[in-house]
Design a protein that fits this description.
Blueprint lengths: L15 H9 L16 H5 L4 E8 L10 H4 L1 H5 L2 E7 L2 E2 L14 E7 H9 L3 E4 L12 H16 L5 H14 L5 H7 L2 H20 L1 H13 L4 H18 L2 H19 L3 H12 L10 H7 L6 H27 L2
């Protein structure tokens, strides 16, 4: 809410009819062309107090299917959407009445403090360039030393990994590598709650005998298969799961089953565990398989099937090569 003064230039987005109505307003005039020095429009709209940035609608966002008006977006985030890009097209009409979709790219302007709220929500992803000057480069070696200490203490069984990791976090704050507020913002609470739900599920499957039942049925189906094809089977199943679930969820669900199958067939459980782990990170076939896929989906103007066309051959190549490398490195 700013006070308007004579001579102020307003940058607006509107239909032709609305512009003509604006022209009829007393005290307003349409300017055919305005030159803001030699700066880009983003530089003009970004001031010391306000900024402009692109915001991406994520695949798991509750904003999908709703409109900016229904969300009261401006009141909720204290920011204004000035354009919406869907694929290669810029949407026309009243933006407040357009249902949002996964992959929509919103051009948002607002106070800098408002973008802190946008960055912490899991419904949206703010796309921005990190200012190198803001990085604490003088703390880099300290951070690397603390990280190496955490890994070594746990690897040498001096202290449990939980204790060393917690000590590392405290040292990061004490040495100034991290600020307390940055720690909270960096925590993936959605992943924590997902694991909090899936780990008890895995324990329940283990205690109830569900894992053993699934493993026995898989052994009966593929008992005549060679070791290579068993690894390939687990890779393909996990790779398909990770396209619709997160990689964390796929690992939690598949590793207990893989271990039971390995015990039943007399195979090395570590080999199957690594196969599942690598497969869970092979999210190439859909834009919702992983966050980076989602990030380039709309800005790159891609379609859903574009990921399948490129990702399917890559996933197939990984399904062929990974079991061979696992057998060579870890043995069966």
């Amino acid at each position: 809410d700013k006070m308007l003064n004579a001579g102020d230039i307003l940058v607006v987005r509107s239909s032709r009819d609305d512009l003509l109505r604006i022209r009829e307003e007393r005290g307003l005039d349409l300017l055919p062309d305005v030159l803001f020095k030699d700066e880009s429009i983003e530089a003009v709209l970004t001031t010391g107090e306000e900024r402009i940035a692109e915001v991406l609608i994520l695949s798991n966002s509750r904003l999908i299917g709703t409109t900016l008006k229904d969300l009261r977006f401006r009141q909720r985030y204290n920011a204004t959407v000035i354009a919406i890009r869907r694929g290669a097209d810029f949407l026309k009409g009243r933006l407040g009445k357009i249902p949002l979709r996964f992959g929509d790219l919103l051009l948002v302007q607002g106070p800098k403090q408002s973008f802190i709220g946008l960055q912490t929500t899991r419904e949206l992803l703010v796309l921005e360039e990190r200012d190198v000057d803001n990085l604490r480069q003088d703390k880099a070696w300290i951070a690397l030393g603390i990280t190496a200490g955490v890994v070594l203490l746990a690897a040498l069984d001096i202290v449990p990994i939980l204790v060393s990791a917690l000590a590392g976090v405290i040292l990061m704050v004490i040495t100034g590598c991290l600020k307390p507020g940055e720690i909270y913002g960096a925590v993936r609470w959605d992943v924590i709650f997902l694991l909090a739900g899936l780990i008890p599920l895995g324990i329940a499957m283990q205690n109830s005998g569900a894992n053993e039942w699934l493993a026995n049925n898989l052994v009966n189906i593929g008992g005549s298969l060679s070791d290579y094809w068993i690894l390939t089977f687990f890779f393909i199943i996990t790779a398909l799961l990770t396209e619709v679930l997160s990689n964390n969820a796929s690992v939690v669900l598949m590793i207990p089953i893989a271990v039971e199958v390995a015990k039943s067939l007399g195979l090395n459980p570590v080999a199957l565990m690594f196969t599942v782990t690598f497969a869970a990170s092979s999210s190439f076939m859909t834009p919702i398989g992983y966050q980076t896929n989602t990030m380039v989906y709309s800005p790159g103007g891609y379609r859903f099937l574009d990921f399948t066309k490129v990702g399917a051959p890559l996933s197939l190549l990984m399904a062929i090569v990974t079991p061979l490398l696992v057998m060579w490195l870890y043995g069966l």
